[in-house]
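Record 1 of the preview.
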Amino acid sequence: MKGKAAAIALCLAAGGLLVPATGFVTSAEAGRCVTKRGKGWAWTQDMAKFQAWEIVAQLSGNWPIQTDTFRNERYKCKKDGDGYTCLSWIDVCKS
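->
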């Protein structure tokens, strides 16, 4: 009986390793995450997004070396004069 229970437990554990990551955040992970905002301006939209991302990285202590995980990055960009202004909302999760 013990052998059968061990075999079932081993199969369940092995099966868990084959399940692909779903991208869902557990409640424990969510407790470690904080949404930070940034704003950037540049000549191109991609550069403005990077500026908005970089502000979040600096404010969260992840610049120049990123030590935390950034999730759910959201950007809203608009034409602004000769360039673009982008706002960012990024969930910063402590590692």
